[in-house]
Amino acid sequence: MNYSLIDTHAHLTFDRLYQRVDEIVEHALDAGFNKIVCICTNIEEFDRALIIQKKYPKLLDIALGFHPSDLFDISETDHERLEQACKQHEIVAIGEIGLDYHYEGTDVEMQKELFIRQMKLANTYDYPILIHMRDATKDTLELIEEHCKTKFLMHCFSGSKETAKVVVTMGGYISFAGPLTFKNARGLLEVPAVVPMDKMFIETDCPFLTPHPFRGKENEPMYASYTFAKLVELLGVDAKQLADQMQENYKRFFKL
Ligand SMILES: [Zn+2]
Ligand SMILES: [Zn+2]
């Protein structure tokens, strides 16, 4: 293979993946990956990610941010640690952050507050943000429009072509995950065509959302190559050209 791939969203610190992280890294390297962004949603995960990064400094970059689903578990000490991580440049992005209205029993106002606070932090230290948006398209885009002064990426994009167009118009980036390969992908298949190649990424969001034909198996970074192959097919482009473009995008988007 004459090109390299990047998984921009992997939860390598989740117990099941963390326990076999060396094997997972080996698989990823064999599959041609030269970069994985380890997404940390709390400080415990961040501590683990720093340990993995010590072993694989070239391969691993880290993002840290407080997920809307963990709303009630985040303390002031956690916010201070995130700010320290920004100051010390231990991370390449803040995320995943955003809004998730999928589950009952959440507090929408608290979610918005948490999201805005982290966007302001990103503005202060000039970090790009990685957005988690589930069943909350309108509110999420409105808050980004109002508060985000840095670059943003919609992770695991599963919205419509119309939403993708809005994101692109706002200057946002879009990352595709396993659902693009699913047999029921339907409308999602029309999305890549409206996203410029210089605004495009792939990811696993592992351990979730394993690409076809491995659904049912635990996801890990190497499987993002299947999402990549699907993108190449849909766009009708040369694989090396797209992969090289994503390497460029990586350098431009993340705070390296
Ligand atoms: Zn997410
Ligand atoms: Zn995630």
Question: Would you kindly provide a brief summary of this structure?
Answer:
By secondary structure, the protein is an alpha/beta fold. The chain contains nine helices and eight strands.
Explain what this protein looks like in three dimensions:
The chain is of the alpha/beta class. It has a single domain (5-253), classed as Metal-dependent hydrolases (TIM Barrel, Alpha-Beta Barrel), CATH 3.20.20. Helix content is 41%, strand content 17%. It is built from nine helices and eight strands. Strands 1-2-3-4-5-6-7-8 form an eight-stranded parallel sheet. The longest helix has 18 residues, at 108-125. The two termini are 25 Å apart. Bound molecules: zinc ion (2 copies). The site of one zinc ion has 5 residues, from loops.
